Amino acid sequence: MTDSKKKQIFPGIKKPLLFGHRGYSHLAPENTLAAFSLLLDYKIPGVELDVYLCRSGELVVVHDDNLLRLGGYNGFTEQTDYTILKTLDVGSHIHSRFKGERIPLLSEVFDLLQDQVYYDIELKTRRLICGELEKKTVQMVNDYGLQDRVLISSFNPFSLKTLKAIGWSRNAIIYSEEIPFYLRHGEGRFLSGCSIIKPQWKMLQKQSIHRSKKKHSFPVITWTVDDPVLGLKLLESGVTGIISNNPGIFNNQGLLP
After folding, report:
1. What CATH number did the domain enclosing 245 receive?
2. In the chain, how many domains are there?
3. pTM passes above 0.90
4. How far is Cα 199 from Cα 42, in angstroms, rounded to an integer?
5. Which of 58, 72, 229, 237 is a Cys-bridge partner for 210, taking CB atoms 3.0 to 4.6 Å apart?
6. Please, what is the end-to-end C-alpha distance for the chain in angstroms?
7. Is residue 96 part of a domain?
8. Could you confirm whether 63 is annotated as catalytic?
């Protein structure tokens, strides 16, 4: 396999890849339908979003494990039923004009964006024994026919290992300075068996991976990059894609093919 094919995560879509972080979160509340719809308005080709399995079994799109910051509710996402989650206002903390924005279901995001974008779905779980979240996510991706447009990522290598065991191989390990030291340099890649890495961009500065394109024997997607100058340097170093809160700045700079 040629080097270019190794780095081609989605069939027929060449690098660089560009993802809106939790939607277009620079302009609208993160992980809301308002933020996701802006990606279509601004012609952003990719979306990054977070998925939890809530207590009643639905796949919900939200970042935080505790909902106090986003919805003023001091409860944990995994331990809360969707009947409660769907009542939370997760827009007003940004601005009154977003009052009434709700935590969407993954199915609602798929209904909105369909195959007009490619996806990076981050699975959120602290469990060491995984299964239901991963199986339900893959099943929903298959139900919508989005198999070739979805990358699944996680900080949790056990979640990624479960995905590989059930036959889903387009997976990425996420890492940063804020996780246990023994996983801070992408070591979860070996435990999970995935072939794509998602380091925080600061990690690339501390590692030799950004200094030579020859180092990139596997795809690298980095986050969260909101400076076009930095983004260009990262792309020139050979990273496969970037995730940004304000992805429109990269369209404006002509950094996409």
Report:
1. 3.20.20.190
2. 1
3. yes
4. 26
5. 237
6. 22
7. no
8. yes
Which of 21, 26, 210, 216 is catalytic? The answer is: 21
The pair of three-digit structure tokens given for residue 148, joined into one six-digit string: 């070739």
Can you tell me the distance from the alpha carbon of 251 to that of 44, in angstroms, rounded to the nearest whole number? Answer: 8
The token duo for 44 is 């952003």
Q: Which residues contact 160 (CB under 8 A, 6 or more apart)?
A: 152, 153, 154, 171, 172, 173, 188, 192, 193, 194
Distance CA(71)–CA(82), nearest Å, equals: 14
What pLDDT digit, counting tens, does each position of 40-87 carry?
999 999 999 999 999 999 999 999 999 999 999 999 999 999 999 999
Question: Among 26, 63, 210, 216, which one carries the catalytic annotation?
Answer: 63
Expressed as residue numbers, the domain containing 181 is 3-52+110-252
Strands 46-53 and 118-123: parallel
Residue 228 CB contacts under 8 Å (≥ 6 apart), including other chains: 249, 250, 252, 253, 255
